[in-house]
Amino acid sequence: MAVRACGLIIYRRLQSAPSSKVTDRIEYLLLQTSYGTHHWTPPKGHVDPGEDDLQTAFRETQEEAGLQASQLTLIEGYKKELHYPVRGKPKTVIYWLAEMKDCNTEIKLSEEHQAFQWLKLEDACKFAEYEDMQATLKEVHQFLCSKE
To answer: How far apart are CA 95 and CA 103, in angstroms?
Structure first.
């Protein structure tokens, strides 16, 4: 059976001059793991017994980034399921999309991560080495742009 994990792709909108495009003001939160290859990823983690997928995504976000569900707005209409092998075993990761209510809220990392960055799309794709994560970030960006 596939390992199952869930998380949130979190973004914030920076306040800036009215002339700037909305898409230029969006930044995505990526966390750098303190283990393995120190890859960059949105907050995510394994589903605990008795939890539903969305509960897992919010719990992991709280544990890994110190963000409470009340500090985020879940964006309706976006959910992405990724499938890939990890150490020879299938893994499924489900992401939802959430916006920071206050773009200045402090991020508090757990021991699982050693750094975080708020990144514009192009840089976020460079940090997220995996092609499926890069494609997901681009898809999210298109989704957000289409809602403007």
So the answer is: 20
